[in-house]
Amino acid sequence: MKLNYHTVPTAVFFVVAAILIAYFFPREGKFRYQFYEGKPWRYELLTAPADFPIYKTDEEVKAEKDSVLSRFEPYYRLDPTVGARQIEKLRATYNAQSPQRITPSHIQSIEKSLVRLYQTGILSHQDKETLEKENRGRINILRNNIGNPQYISTLYTTRTAYEFILDNAPADLDKEALRTYNINNYLEENLFYDAEMSDKVREDKLQRVAISSGMVQAGERIVDRGEIIDARTYEILRSLKIVHETKSGVTQQQGIIFAGQFILVFGLIFCLWLYLWSFRSRILYSRKNTVFLLLCVFAGCLLTELYVTYSLFNVYILPYAIVPIVVRTFFDSRTALFVHLIIVLICSLMVPYPHEFLILQTVAGMVVTFSLKDLSERSQLIRCAFFIYLSYVFCYMSMNVYLEAVFDKLNWLMLLYFGINFILLMFTYILVYMLEKVFGYVSSITLVELSNINTPLLKKLSEVAPGTFQHSLQVSLLGSEAATKIGANAQLVRTGALYHDIGKMSNPAFFTENQTSFNPHDQITPEQSVQIIIGHVTEGVKMAEKAALPHTIVDFIRTHHGRGKTKYFYNMLKNAHPDKEIDEAMFTYPGPNPFSKETAVLMMADSVEAASRSLKEHTEEEIKTLVNKIIDSQLADGLLNNTPLTYRDIETVKNTFVEKLKIMYHTRISYPELKKQGI
C-alpha cells in the first residue's frame, strides 16, 4: 500500500503508540485458562505437562512465617570479662580501705553472689522489658559461640541482681552493712543482643518454611471438562498458572513475549489506522487529531496496565466510557465506538477475566453511541452515564446467572464499583473543557455558550451595529437550516454566523444595514470605501482573537467572503474609468476561501441574505433567481473549490435558502375593515 505525503508522519505516530503500549505491557506469559472455584471446567482434559509443586497461598505462607517468628528465640552473647572485672574491682576496693562495718564474710558473700549472677547473666532493664512485651519465653545465650537456651525469668537486671545479693546473704551477716557498701558499683550488664547471629538464624528458619504442600507428577490428571473445580483442584490449577507465568518471565523469553505483545498491539492499532484511512481521512491527515486519538488509546491502556501491575483497585472503577464520550463530542459516533473497541480489545489481553470485560465494555461503548448524539447540556451527560451504569449492572448480573444459575453468588460489591465508575464519568464535562484548551477543539457545549446573545461581544454588536446584528441572526437561521439538510454541523454554522461580521463594529455606519438616510461612502473615494469594507474581515479577526474565541469560529470570520471581490465598488470604478488599469488585488478580500461544508454554507447564506434585502418583490421566482445567481457566481469564481460540497449538496442548499427566504419575507394578508352601515 502506497502512502502519500500526508499519511507518512501520522503513520509514524501509530507505530510509536504501539511500541509504547507494548513496552508497558505486563511481561508475564498469559495463562490460557480461566478458572473459578466452585464452577465447572470449560476446557478439555488437562494433565500436568511436567512435575510441579502445589504452592501454598501467600496467606498460608505468611501465617506459617508469623508462627516461626513468634516462636523465635533471639541470641544474646555473654561477655565473661565483665564478671571477672567487677569481682577484681570488688577485691581491690576492699583491700584499699580500712575495714569498718564490712568484714571478710561480707565480701565473700558478695563475691559468691556476683559469680553466680554473672554466670547466669545480667540483662539491661530495657531489653528484658522488650522481651517480656514480645512474649518471648526464652533466649539463646552464646558462651564460647555455643548457644544455650535459657528462660528469661531466670535472668537478672542490675536491680534484681542487687536484691538477689541481699536476699542470699547469710542470716548472721549485718544486711544493713551490706546496703552501705555500694553494691551497685559492681553490677553491670554482661548479656548483649547479637543482631548478626539472631538475623542469620531467623532467616534460616524462615527459609525452611515450605512454600508448597505437595507435588503433581508429569502426566497426572488434573481436571476434565464439566467437572466442578473444588478447593484442591483450584490450588493445583493456581500452582500450574504460577509455574507457567514464572517460566514465561525468565530473561531469555522476555524478548519473545515483548515481540508477541507488540505484534498484537500493532495489529489492533493498524486496524484503527485502516479505519481512519478508509472512512475518516480528514482526521488521519491532521496530526493534531491523530495525536489526540492515539493519546486516548494510550491513556486507557496505560491505566489498565497500572491496575494489572499494582492491583490498586477493581478494573471496573476505570471509566473506559469516557473515551467514546470525548471522541463523540469532538468527532462522530462511528469513530468514537471504533476507538473504544480498540482500547477494550488491547486491555482485554491484560485483565483477569477477558470475556466478561469484553462484553461489559463493548456494551457500554454501544450505549454511548446511541444515548449521546451530542454533548451540549449537562443533563445529556448524566443520562448517558446512568444508561452506562444500567448496562454494566444488567450485563454483569446476566453473565453471573448464566454461569452460576443462581443469584446467591453475585458479588454485590460490583454494584459499588459501577457506581464509582458512574461518578467518575461526571468529570467528562471538565475533561472536555481541558481538552478544548489543549487541542484547540470546539465542543457543542462551547458553541451553545457562545451562541448566547448576551455574551459581551454579541451584546456590543447589537448595540453598536443593530442592523448587522439582525443580519447575523438571519444568516444563522439560513445557514443552520441548510447545514442540517446536507449533514453538516448546524450548531457550528449557527455560532459562526453570529460572529462572522463583528468587524463591522469598527465602522458600523459604512455598511448599508446600519444606515438610515446618510451614506458616508458618498463623502470618500471608492478606493477608501473598499479598504473600509474589506477591513471588516481583518478587524473582526482581531476582535475575535482579543476575545479568545476558538480558532474554528475565527475561521468563519476569515472565510465568509473568501477571496471574492467587492464587486459594487469594483464595477463602479471600472464603469467610471473604462480605460484605466485597475489593481484587482485592492478590491479582493484577504480570504482564505472556505475549506469545509460549514464555512461554505455560511458564505452562501451571508451573500444570499444580504442580497435578498435589495429585492423589490419577494416572490418565489424572484427569490429563486437571486439565490441561483449568487451561488452560481461564487462557483464560477472558484470560491467553493476547496470545500467537500457536492453538486447535490449545493442544490440542497439552494432549495433550502429559497424555502427559508419565502417564509422570512412572507407578508401577512390585510384584514378587511368593517364598513359602517348608514343610519
Please describe the topology of this protein.
Blueprint lengths: L6 H17 L22 E2 L4 E4 L2 H14 L3 E4 L1 H17 L7 H17 L4 H9 L4 E6 L2 E6 L6 H10 L7 H5 L11 E3 L1 H13 L4 E5 L4 E3 L7 H18 L2 H29 L1 H4 L2 H24 L11 H9 L2 H16 L5 H18 L6 H27 L8 H13 L2 H12 L4 H7 L5 H9 L1 H21 L3 H10 L26 H21 L4 H9 L7 H10 L20 H16 L7 H17 L10 H18 L15
Parallel strand pairs: 3-4
Antiparallel strand pairs: 1-8, 2-7, 3-6, 4-5
Helix pairs in contact: 1-10, 1-12, 3-4, 10-14, 12-14, 13-14, 14-15, 15-16, 16-17, 20-21, 21-22, 21-26, 21-28, 22-24, 22-26, 23-24, 23-25, 26-27, 27-28
How would you characterize this protein structure?
This protein is mainly alpha-helical and 679 residues long. It contains 28 helices and 8 strands. Helix 1 (7-23) runs parallel beside helix 12, helix 12 (287-310) runs parallel beside helix 14 (333-348) and helix 26 (597-612) packs across helix 27 (620-636). The relative contact order is 0.07.
Write a concise keyword list for the protein shown above.
679 residues; two-stranded antiparallel sheet; 60% helix; 5% strand
Largest sheet: 4 strands, mixed
CATH architecture of the largest domain: Orthogonal Bundle
Distance between the termini: 96 Å
> In what range is the share of β-strand residues?
under 5%
Radius of gyration: 45 Å
Mean pLDDT, to the nearest integer, reads 86
Q: What's the number of domains?
A: 3
What coarse outline follows from CA principal-axis ratios?
Answer: elongated
Under CATH, the topology of the largest domain can be stated as Hypothetical protein af1432
DSSP summary: helix tally: 28
CATH class of the largest domain reads Mainly Alpha
Unreliable stretches (pLDDT < 50, length at least 5) are: 1-7
How many DSSP-defined strands? 8
Instruction: Tell me the structural class.
Output: mainly alpha
Placed side by side, the strands forming the largest sheet appear as: 5-4-3-6
Q: What level of helicity do the residues show?
A: 55-70%
